[in-house]
Amino acid sequence: MKKPDLDKIMTNGRAMFLAYDQGLEHGPTKDFNDDNVDPNYIIEIAKKGKYNAIIFQKGIAEKYGKEIKDSKVPLIIKLNGKTNLREGEPRSEQICSVKEAVSLGAVAVGYTIYIGSDYEEDMMKEFAGIEEEAHMLGMPVITWVYPRGKGTQDKSDSELMAYAARVALEVGADIAKIKYDGSKKDLKWAVKSAGKTKVVIAGGTKANEGKFLKEIKDIISAGGAGIAVGRNVWQSEDPFELSKKIRKIILGK
User: Fold this and answer.
1) Fewest beta carbons within 10 Å, which of 77, 110, 115, 183?
2) In which domain, by residue range, is 46 found?
3) Torsion of CA 134, 46, 41, 239, to 10 degrees
């Protein structure tokens, strides 16, 4: 077992990831326009914005492999996914192996676990195999931990956020990608609950720029390692200028 090399996707323990897995999760009609529907546009933002890494599903990683390699932005491949068309309890199964991710140039991999879902056990079991294989190669593993499903009913947002962070630690993830409930106090507890697992906050739906930047400041102040942002950047009128502002807050340069 090799120690995961987080320096490949972080700067002094801080993370600024550009996420672009929304095409599978949400479809192309709501989130995309003529510019950002093109993966090349996202790669350009990641390169010029000096992001620590870019997050793709395997299809884009394969079809745009040359462009990603030329950008020199480290690649994280999301190993599982689902559409929003299926009804019922959330379940996201593996569609890319660690071996395939490595062959496509990934330096880290990610996987979503929906805690509280009827299928939670299946996803945790699948993740266990991924985590073991990736760590044998010294690859960092990021876990998207999202509380969803019947098991989350009657639970507060603060409780679920901390639980998500703790789950990431307990299953062996190097980085937990969780959703922020908007309370810096709650996030401090979630970060503490994650122990030595780094906490990165999901960017979420498009928000007012001022509010978004303030949230990033709060995240860093609360001990978070950074963000994995998608729509708030590539739906922005000027994603390059916004990326500079984000970088200044998270990385200080």
Assistant:
1) 183
2) 6-251
3) 140
On the 0-12 / 13-18 / 19+ scale of CB atoms within 10 A, 165 is: buried
Backbone angles phi, psi at 100, to 5 degrees: -65, -40
Per cent of the chain over pLDDT 90 is 92
> Residue 145's domain is classified under what CATH number?
3.20.20.70
Residues pairing with 50 in the sheet: none
Pairing of strands 198-202, 226-229: parallel
Is 1 inside any structural domain?
no
Residue-wise pLDDT tens digits, 78-107: 999 999 998 899 999 999 999 999 999 999
Number of domains making up the chain: 1
**Does the residue 154 lie in any domain?**
yes
Reported as a single tens digit per residue, the pLDDT across 155-204 is 999 999 999 999 999 999 999 999 999 999 999 999 999 999 999 999 87
164 belongs to a structural domain: yes
Taking 90 as the threshold, does the pLDDT of residue 152 lie above it? yes
Under 8 Å between Cβ of 128 and 98? no
Report phi then psi at 137, rounded to 5. -95, 0
How would you class 140 by CB atoms within 10 Å of its CB: exposed for 0-12, middle for 13-18, buried for 19 or more?
buried
From the list 82, 196, 206, 188, the residue with the least C-alpha distance to 144 is: 82
Catalytic residue flag (residue 177): yes
Q: Is 41 a catalytic residue?
A: no
233 part of a folded domain: yes
Given the residues 20, 146, 163, 180, select the one marked as catalytic: 146
